[in-house]
């Protein structure tokens, strides 16, 4: 029997509803594959903030460090500023554990309707690889004359050659491992941002030369946004900065049918620290507590976690079970046009797992 310790942070809003569903699936797949999960639940997030004035305790990183992986629901609360929730929980974890690769697959499952007219199931199949520890999210800057009429805010992006090189290399290695197109698209805005993005372009070209079998493409982020809509089937692996790929991966989530299907992994590819798995969606206060949030993004993220834990067969079974439920089209939450509840969708996945 293989045992994994999983730190679980359900967080806020719908996070509290989707995480128990992912646990149900992990427990079922664990039984089938002789894997045991020791879940350690951490009740951090907005409620913790209301009580203690911070999103997670001072020693949070030390508590997470011994775990094999982290499963996260969502962070965000209408009564707390978004920069407080994000900088108080999600971003410090990504940085502390050097989870420099944020991997966000975009796959249009057969049976799911894209809001785009053309694509059918399987036509959209690419992965957004987002640099996850620096760039526009570096939190370097400050205020001058704060809250005065002459207030100035400075927010500096940080692009290091090491940071760019390692994420671009990760993208190429991912393209090598994928079955289909073998292509990496680099996203910048180097016509307007003549330092950081020029460093990115140069580094991309250098790394690309080491992967002669992989087709390459470089797009400005505005053109990429357009082409995600116009020709989504042309992409394989897309790599870009923290902010650009955060935005682009919302487009990729919606063209595969719903934000409720978009899974993600925050990886430390060197496996020095625990990696973290989370749905791309946030806390969705508009639907929280109604029992209708789509659990599949979190279940697919748990599948990515299994893959990272080198439980490949179990991971593939989870994805196949989700794909089967979507292909049948009977049990769906409202974001996919259905009337089923969160729990009913998970039960349908469990049924497929047998
Ligand atoms: N699933 C975690 C969550 O709540 N994400 C919402 C969010 O705002 N994420 C910001 C980011 O990924 O940069």
Q: Which features does this protein show?
A:
binds glycylglycylglycine, two-stranded antiparallel ribbon, 10-stranded mixed β-sheet, globular, 40% helix, alpha/beta, 354 residues
Structural write-up:
- The protein has about 350 residues and is an alpha/beta fold.
- It contains 11 helices and 12 strands.
- A 10-stranded mixed beta sheet has the order 2-1-3-12-11-4-5-10-8-9, with helices on both faces.
- The longest helix has 19 residues, at about 15-35.
- The mean pLDDT is about 95.
- The structure holds glycylglycylglycine (GGG).
Contiguous low-pLDDT stretches (5 residues minimum) are none
Instruction: Count up the helices.
Output: 11
Q: What amount of the residues lies in strands?
A: 15-25%
Secondary-structure content class: alpha/beta
Gap between N and C termini, in Å?
Answer: 20 Å
- Largest sheet, spatial ordering of strands: 2-1-3-12-11-4-5-10-8-9
Mean pLDDT figure: 97
Number of strand segments: 12
Write the H/E string, N to C. EHEHHEHEEEEHEHEHEHEEHHH
Radius of gyration: 20 Å
Approximate shape: globular
Helix content: 40-55%
Give the ligands present: glycylglycylglycine
């Amino acid at each position: 029997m293989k045992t994994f310790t999983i730190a679980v942070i359900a967080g806020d809003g719908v996070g509290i509803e989707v995480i128990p569903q992912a646990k149900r699936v992990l427990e079922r797949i664990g039984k089938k594959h002789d894997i045991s999960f020791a879940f350690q639940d951490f009740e951090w997030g907005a409620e913790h903030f209301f009580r203690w004035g911070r999103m997670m305790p001072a020693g949070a990183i030390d508590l997470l460090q011994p775990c094999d992986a982290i499963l996260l629901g969502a962070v965000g609360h209408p009564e707390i500023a978004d920069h407080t929730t994000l900088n108080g929980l999600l971003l410090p974890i990504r940085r502390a554990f050097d989870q420099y690769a944020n991997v966000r697959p975009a796959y249009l499952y057969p049976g799911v309707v894209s809001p785009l007219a053309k694509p059918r199931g399987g036509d959209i199949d690419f992965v957004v690889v987002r640099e996850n520890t620096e760039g526009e999210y570096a939190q370097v800057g400050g205020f001058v004359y704060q809250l005065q009429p002459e207030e100035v805010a400075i927010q500096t992006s940080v692009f290091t050659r090491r940071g760019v090189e390692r994420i671009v290399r990760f993208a190429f290695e991912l393209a090598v491992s994928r079955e289909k197109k073998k292509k990496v698209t680099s996203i910048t805005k180097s016509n307007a941002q003549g330092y950081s993005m020029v460093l990115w372009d140069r580094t991309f070209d250098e790394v690309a030369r080491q992967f002669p079998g992989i087709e390459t493409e470089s797009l400005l982020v505005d053109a990429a946004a357009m082409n995600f809509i116009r020709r989504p089937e042309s992409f394989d692996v897309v790599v870009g900065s923290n902010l650009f790929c955060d935005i682009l991966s919302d487009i990729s989530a919606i063209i595969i049918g719903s934000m409720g299907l978009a899974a993600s992994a925050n990886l430390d590819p060197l496996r020095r620290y625990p990696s973290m798995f989370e749905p791309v969606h946030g806390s969705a206060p508009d639907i929280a507590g109604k029992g209708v949030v789509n659990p599949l993004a979190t279940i697919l993220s748990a599948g990515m976690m299994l893959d990272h834990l080198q439980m490949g067969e179990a991971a593939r079974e989870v994805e196949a079970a989700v794909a089967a439920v979507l292909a049948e089209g009977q049990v769906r939450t409202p974001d996919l046009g259905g009337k089923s509840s969160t729990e009913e969708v998970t039960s349908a996945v469990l049924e497929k797992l047998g």
